[in-house]
């Protein structure tokens, strides 16, 4: 794939979102540890859950806003609000003020407005790239870019977050503002006028209408099963900066990774967590495009099922080891599950969504993340009650339940396809 031949919007987004994501990943993986230490596990778990619940509301109206006001406008507004949230984080961790509660408010603002940004961003790709295989690769390239950030960000953030937090947040605020300006000045609107929806009078009416619209969307049984399975499976990958972060910090002891002559490489919990997240990003960055091309040879049914099993198995490995080596192996299996469906999931949504409701379908599909992320923080206090092993077992079981729902979904697709062919024969 020649990125130089991409639509100009895609080029700008690739550059802008690279820097956006790089600084985002310098602090995101460590916030769960920070909140758990400063506010306590139960309080931090409840607060994180509440912020994500608000994100569900944002997700409900995000698709409508992208289909009504345009992809670019929603991306610009969301980006500037996220920059404002980043500035709030900076103030809350400055030489004149240290406030975990204000830090949480800033983080919540960034998280919620991200729910508004993502449907518009995904819909812009679907508007611009029509070919299915090409679209898969575009989504894969963007995902690879994100995971390059996942490699670099936590390694730098692992140092700066605990030793120079104000500098990290201040620099991130500047980058967020620059990215917002880039999106505002350089990106062009991609929403076709032919499918642009009429504006509603108020947000309350928008919300009521969206509930009605999503009720219609979820009568699409295939899409409903897709979202339901995604919510269950999301309990695995949403734990990377939640349960896994706290587990490694509390349970994995200092240990020697490499010893050769006088050279010894040891890891403590903070560095192990940074390296584990970086491993995930490195594998994705190096192999996503290659594996996506290979995965296109297989049907979606096999890929979705295989991905779910990889997620489940990795969760079991995480929960039953104190070895850094096994943690790295588990992350490699986890990442394989991630890569198998990275392009196919967005392409699957674009395939089943009516053109006039594409933004809303992408937004509704975001419930896999927003609802999943709402539930996910409960694992932190849950681990304090039933222990880490049983918590990881429960998460693995949910992933396997998701795999079963995918099987039902594809059987339903086959059934609908047969019915459509029979109807065409009758006509």
Quick recap:
This protein has 427 residues and is mainly α. The protein has a two-stranded antiparallel ribbon. The protein has a two-stranded antiparallel sheet with strand order 3-4. The radius of gyration is 21 Å and the shape is globular.
Would you give an account of this structure?
This protein has a single domain (7-426), classed as Growth Hormone, Chain: A (Up-down Bundle). It has 17 helices and four strands. The protein has helices spanning 8-39, 41-69, 71-92, 100-128, 132-163, 165-186, 203-217, 221-237, 243-251, 269-295, 300-319, 324-340, 342-352, 358-365, 367-375, 379-386, 388-426, and strands spanning 93-94, 97-98, 255-260, 263-267. A two-stranded antiparallel ribbon has the order 1-2. Helix 3 runs antiparallel to helix 6 (165-186). The longest helix is centred in the last third of the chain and has 39 residues, at 388-426. It starts with 7 loop residues before the first helix and ends with a helix. The mean pLDDT is 82.
Q: Would you spell out the secondary-structure blueprint of this structure?
A:
Layout: H1 8-39, H2 41-69, H3 71-92, E1 93-94, E2 97-98, H4 100-128, H5 132-163, H6 165-186, H7 203-217, H8 221-237, H9 243-251, E3 255-260, E4 263-267, H10 269-295, H11 300-319, H12 324-340, H13 342-352, H14 358-365, H15 367-375, H16 379-386, H17 388-426
Keywords, please?
globular, 427 residues, 4 strands, mainly alpha, two-stranded antiparallel ribbon, Growth Hormone, Chain: A
Quickly count the helices. Answer: 17
CATH architecture: Up-down Bundle
Oligomer state equals single chain
How many whole angstroms does the radius of gyration measure?
Answer: 21 Å
Order of helices and strands: HHHEEHHHHHHEEHHHHHHHH
Helix share, percent: over 70%
Strand content: under 5%
Q: Which stretches are poorly predicted, pLDDT < 50 over at least 5 residues?
A: none
For the terminal residues, how far apart are their CA atoms?
42 Å
List the strand order in the largest sheet.
1-2
Task: Tell how many strands the DSSP assignment holds.
Answer: 4
For CATH, the homologous superfamily is named as MFS general substrate transporter like domains
């Amino acid at each position: 794939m020649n990125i130089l031949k991409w639509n100009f919007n895609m080029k700008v987004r690739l550059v802008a979102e690279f820097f956006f994501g790089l600084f985002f990943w310098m602090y995101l993986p460590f916030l769960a540890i920070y909140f758990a230490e400063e506010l306590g596990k139960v309080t931090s778990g409840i607060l994180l859950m509440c912020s994500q619940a608000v994100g569900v509301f944002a997700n409900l109206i995000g698709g409508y806003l992208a289909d009504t006001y345009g992809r670019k406008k929603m991306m610009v507004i969301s980006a500037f609000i996220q920059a404002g949230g980043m500035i709030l984080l900076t103030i809350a961790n400055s030489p004149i003020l240290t406030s975990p509660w204000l830090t949480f408010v800033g983080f919540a603002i960034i998280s919620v407005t991200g729910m508004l940004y993502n449907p518009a961003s995904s819909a812009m790709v679907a508007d611009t790239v029509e070919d299915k295989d090409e679209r898969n690769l575009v989504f894969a390239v963007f995902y690879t870019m994100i995971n390059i950030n996942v490699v670099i960000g936590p390694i730098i953030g692992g140092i700066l977050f605990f030793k120079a937090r104000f500098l990290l947040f201040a620099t991130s605020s500047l980058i967020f503002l620059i990215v917002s300006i880039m999106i505002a000045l350089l990106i062009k609107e991609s929403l076709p006028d032919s499918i642009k929806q009429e504006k509603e009078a108020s947000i309350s009416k928008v919300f009521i209408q969206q509930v009605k619209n999503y009720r219609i969307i979820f009568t699409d049984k295939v899409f409903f099963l897709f979202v339901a399975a995604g919510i269950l499976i999301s309990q695995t990958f949403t734990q990377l900066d939640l349960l896994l972060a706290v587990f490694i910090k509390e349970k994995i002891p200092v240990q020697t990774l490499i010893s050769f002559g006088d050279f010894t490489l040891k890891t403590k919990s903070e560095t192990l967590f940074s390296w584990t997240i970086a491993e995930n990003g490195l594998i994705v960055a190096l192999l996503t495009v290659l594996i996506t091309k290979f995965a296109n040879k297989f049907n979606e049914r096999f890929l979705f099922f295989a991905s779910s099993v990889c997620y489940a198995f990795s969760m079991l490995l995480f929960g039953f080891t104190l070895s850094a080596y096994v943690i790295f192996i588990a992350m490699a299996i986890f990442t394989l599950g991630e890569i198998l469906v990275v392009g196919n999931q967005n392409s699957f949504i674009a395939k089943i969504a009516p053109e006039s409701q594409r933004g809303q379908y992408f937004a509704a599909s975001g419930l896999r993340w927003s609802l999943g992320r709402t539930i996910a923080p409960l694992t932190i206090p849950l681990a304090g009650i039933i222990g880490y092993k049983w918590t990881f077992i429960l998460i693995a079981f949910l992933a396997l339940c998701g795999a079963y729902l995918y099987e039902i979904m594809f059987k339903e697709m086959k059934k609908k396809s047969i019915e459509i062919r029979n109807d065409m024969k009758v006509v």
